């Protein structure tokens, strides 16, 4: 069961990475729970957004792909407990930042959905 969930979670994260890298808001919307919250800091400044606000930001910026950046996103670790999981990710550098993410995922209607994104830009 763990391997099945791990594979499904990795697939969800792959869609998340592709959505960020290519600016694919439809892909991002498909992996996030509609009530997901995103929080963290960018160069020490607090960041708190709803999913809708986050999607608008992705929609209105040039994507790393459009800017010719190399795809450097990877999963550093996944912890699964029942129908919940936490994933530690990195996508550094991207758009001039060194982002590290902690994603909280939950099984929702038979699919793994990102319910929270906590991130930081690390110098």
How does this structure look, described?
The protein has one domain (2-121): Nuclear Transport Factor 2, Chain: A (Roll), CATH 3.10.450.50. A six-stranded mixed beta sheet has the order 2-1-6-5-4-3. Strand 5 and strand 6 form a beta hairpin. Helix 1 runs antiparallel to helix 2 (25-31). By secondary structure, it is an alpha+beta fold. The protein has helices spanning 2-22, 25-31, 51-59, and strands spanning 32-42, 45-50, 73-81, 84-94, 97-108, 111-121. The N and C termini lie far apart (38 Å).
Spell out the blueprint of helices and strands.
Elements: H1 2-22, H2 25-31, E1 32-42, E2 45-50, H3 51-59, E3 73-81, E4 84-94, E5 97-108, E6 111-121
Parallel strand pairs: 1-6
Antiparallel strand pairs: 1-2, 3-4, 4-5, 5-6
Number of helices: 3
Largest sheet: 6 strands, mixed
- Find the count of extended strands (DSSP E, 2+ residues): 6
- Stretches where pLDDT falls below 50 for ≥5 residues? none
Give me the side-by-side strand order of the main sheet: 2-1-6-5-4-3
Percent helix range: 25-40%
